[in-house]
Amino acid sequence: MTFFTIVFRGLIRRPVRTGLTLLGISIGIAAVVALVGMAWGYEKSIGRQLDVIGIDMVVSNMSGGLLPKVFDESLQGRVAAFPHVAEVTPTLMLMLSVEEAPLIMVSGREWGSFTWKMLRVLDGRIPKDATERAVVLGRLAAEGLGKKVGDTVQIEAEELQVVGIVDGQAVVENGAIILALPLLQEVTGNEGKVNFLNIRLTKDTTKPEVARLRDQIKEIFPEGRALEASEVVGTSQGFRIARAMSWSTALLAIIVGVLGVMNTMLMTVFERTHEIGILLAVGWKRQRIIWMVLCESALLGLLGGITGVALGAAGLKILESTTTMRGLLEPDLSPKLLLTSIAIAVVVGVISGLYPGWRSSRLSPSRALQA
Amino acid sequence: MAQDSTPSGALVYEARGLKKIFDGGSVAALRGVDFQVWEGEFVAIVGPSGCGKSTLLQLLGSLDRPSEGSLTYRGQSLADLRDPSAYRAAEIGFVFQAFHLLPTFTVAENVQIPMFEGPLSRGERVARARELLHEVGLEHRLDHFPSELSGGERQRVAIARSLANNPSVLLADEPTGNLDSENAAHIVELLLQLHRDRHTTLILVTHDLTIAALAARTLRMKDGRIVHSPPDPVAA
C-alpha cells in the first residue's frame, strides 16, 4: 500500500458522489475544450487561408464585428499606387444564410486575381468570366449543402449555377461559396463595396517599408487598418470577442467546477472527521492530512480533466460533422489545448481542496475521535 | 496477580497540578492531578465513568492539551511540543475501546497506516505489518477487512497497529470494554506479553478491577482527581 492507495480509497468510498463530481468537472472541462478549441481553430484556419493564398497584408475596417464593415472599392487603385505594392485585389466576404445552411461564408473575388489561382478544381471548372452567373463551392460547403456540379444554389433571391467544386487548402476556403466579386455585390446589394483589400508586396520589401506603407494607407483610409497577415487574427475585434467569450464561458465552467469539488471535499472531510482523528492519533502529521485531501481533490480534477477532454473532443467532432457547422469549423485539438485543459482541471482540484484540507488539519484529534 | 514490572529508574511521565477544563470552564474533567510513571511500568487507571480517566490518557498521548498544570514526557513539556504528531508517531501506541480501525482498509493496511510517518519503504512496511500480525496471531487475516473480523480480532489488529512504530509507551483506553470475557482475557494477556517482551511502558484505563489488579500500580480516580495512588516504585 502506498500513500496514493489511501488517496484513491478516499475517492472510491462514495462512488456515486465522486462520479457526480467527476461528471461536473468533466462537463466544465469539455466546455473549455469545445469553446477554446473552436476559437483557436477558427483563428488558425484564417491564418492558414491567408498563407495559402499568399496574402502579405490585409486592409479592412475591423470595427464591425466578426466580419469587417464594407467600404468603397475605389480604394484599391489608390493603394495599388503605393511603393512596394505588387498586387491588390478586393474581396467581399459575407456570412449568409444559404438554403439549409444557417450561416455560410460567401466570398466574392475580383475576377482573375491571385485569390482565384490558389483554388484546386476537384470537379467541374472555374467560372468562365466575371459575368457568368455561377459559383464554385469549397468541398466542405458542397458536402454541407449537398450540392454537386450542375445544381443551383440560392444566394439571397438569386439562383446561381454551381460550375465547380474546389479545394482551397484551408477550412475557411473549403467551407465557402466563391464567386466573382461583381456578382456577389449585385446579389447582395453591395454594388461598388468590398470589405477586404488583399495585398501582395514586392519581394524585397523591408519592415520599415511595410510600416511606411501602413502609415500611407492609414492616411487615405483613416477608419481602416492595414495589417500584416500574421496580425489579422490577433487584432481582429471579432476574434477578440470570440476569444473573450470562449474564455469567459470556460471561466464560468471552471468556477462551477471549483465549487462542486470544494463541496465534495468538504463533505468528505466532515464525513471522515473520525477517520482523520484516527490518523492523527496514530501519528500522522497535519501536513500529511492536508496533502491527502489535496491529492484527493487533485486526483478528482485529473480524472475529471481527462474525461472532460475526451468529452469535449468527441463533442467537437460530432459538432464538426453536423450540417450546420460543416465547413465552418476546424477545431484546434492540439496537445497544447488538451494538456492545458487537463492542467486547468488539476489546478481546479487543488484550489478546491485547499479550504477542506485546511479545515481537516484544524481538527482536534481527541474531538475528531469522538465524532 | 500484579505484574512484576521493573521500572528502570527513568522518569517517563510527570504530572503536576494537571487540569483539563472543557466548554469554557463549565466542565472540569481533571481538577489537579499529580503522578509519575517510570520506564517499563504497567500502571492501571481505574475509576467510575466520567472521572477523567480517558481525558488523562488523551493528555498523555498529546491528543489534547492541558488547561493548567504541567505534564512532561521524559522531561519535555507536552504542552510545549511543536509537533505532537511526531511525538505520537515515535513514542506512543494507542489502543482504544472502539478499536478505531479504518473500515475501507484491510487488516494489513490498517497496521501499515502509522508507518507512513516512519522511514520504512513500501516493502518494509508490508513485511513489518505481516510480522506484527503474526505476533498477535492474525497472520491468516492479512487481507480481510475489519468488518469481517470478530471484536477480539479487531482489537488484536489495533494492538498490532499500535506497535507499528515500535513505541516506548502503550496507552490503552478500556481495551476490553467492547469484548466478551474470553476475548477480553486474551487481549489482556496479549498486552501483558507485549509489555514484558518489549519492556514497553503500559498505561491502561479500565473499569475492570480484575484487570487493574494485574498492574504493578493502580491509580484510582474520582471526580477528576487521583484519590488513591500506591507508593511510587522508584521513589519508594
Features:
heterodimer, A: 371 residues, alpha+beta, 2 domains, ten-stranded mixed beta sheet, two-stranded antiparallel sheet, 14 helices, 12 strands, B: 236 residues, alpha/beta, six-stranded mixed beta sheet, four-stranded antiparallel beta sheet, 7 helices, 10 strands
Judged by helices, strands and strand pairing, the structural class of chain A is alpha+beta
What is the strand arrangement across the widest sheet of chain B?
Answer: 6-7-8-3-9-10
The best one-word shape of chain B is globular
Most strands sheet of chain B: 6 strands, mixed
Write down the overall geometry of chain A: elongated
DSSP summary, beta strand count of chain B: 10
The percent range for strand residues of chain A is 15-25%
**Protein chains sharing the most extensive interface:** A-B, 24 and 32 residues
How much helicity do the residues of chain A have? Answer: 55-70%
Task: Give the strand content of chain B.
Answer: 25-35%
Give, in order, the helices and strands of chain B: EEEHEEHEHHHEHEHEE
Distance between the termini of chain A: 26 Å
Structural class of chain B: alpha/beta
Radius of gyration of chain A: 28 Å
Q: SSE order of chain A, as H and E?
A: HHEEHEEHEEHEEHEHEEHEHHHHHH
Termini separation of chain B (Å)? 21 Å
User: Sheet with the most strands of chain A?
Assistant: 10 strands, mixed
